[in-house]
Write a structure and sequence with these properties.
The complex is a heterodimer of chains A (about 110) and B (about 120). Chain A contains no helices and eleven strands. Chain A is an all-beta fold. In chain A, the strands form two sheets. In chain A, strands 2, 4, 5, 9, 10 and 11 form a six-stranded mixed sheet that branches. In chain A, a hairpin with an 8-residue loop joins β9 and β10 (about 100). The radius of gyration of chain A is 13 Å and the shape is globular. In chain A, about 35% of the residues are buried. Chain B is mainly β and about 120 residues long. In chain B, strands 2, 4, 5, 6, 9, 12 and 13 form a seven-stranded mixed sheet that branches. The N and C termini of chain B lie far apart (about 30 Å). Classes of the chains: A mainly beta (about 110), B mainly beta (about 120).
Amino acid sequence: QQQVKQSPQSLIVQKGGISIINCAYENTAFDYFPWYQQFPGKGPALLIAIRPDVSEKKEGRFTISFNKSAKQFSLHIMDSQPGDSATYFCAASIGKGGKLIFGQGTELSVKP
Amino acid sequence: DSGVTQTPKHLITATGQRVTLRCSPRSGDLSVYWYQQSLDQGLQFLIQYYNGEERAKGNILERFSAQQFPDLHSELNLSSLELGDSALYFCASSPQTGEVVGEQYFGPGTRLTVT
């Protein structure tokens, strides 16, 4: 019940394309869903986050779509760039300050 | 740069030894979290401290312990090290205003290699 399942494990997208990463959760007590971006040798960096009372949140080229009834959420990266090549983690917690339960990660490669 | 600092950056030690990892949170952040990242387990929550008190515990081994000091820096102690403890250890911190806790910001990590 504490798991967050993330797919795909790896993703290759052409420059300018849309990258889509999906996550699913079981615990309905989760109420905060952040996405983190991690470059090799660095710590995870907060990208964007959503609460379950909204179905979509957009920040620049990054959009989170949230489906509360399906207990699923996804990250869309529009106009993907080679600089977006990194590992992306979805996460869930109870409250912003709660322990983060992370998905397994998606290694994104954007080809020029 | 998140503002969270961790030392050392790399640590190589032998099985059976004990090490201490150090974390300084962002200025003013009262909460500190420790996470372990390994290839087989992914990113896993270990323990959280808030203003010096233990707030939450994850699947932290009994051989591991942590504390948060009055100046808010935190240390993670790993003892009787095993090969399987080789991993990246991340510290994160978050601010709190009243009852509202903010997002978690991660440090650069400490890479521990046990040989």
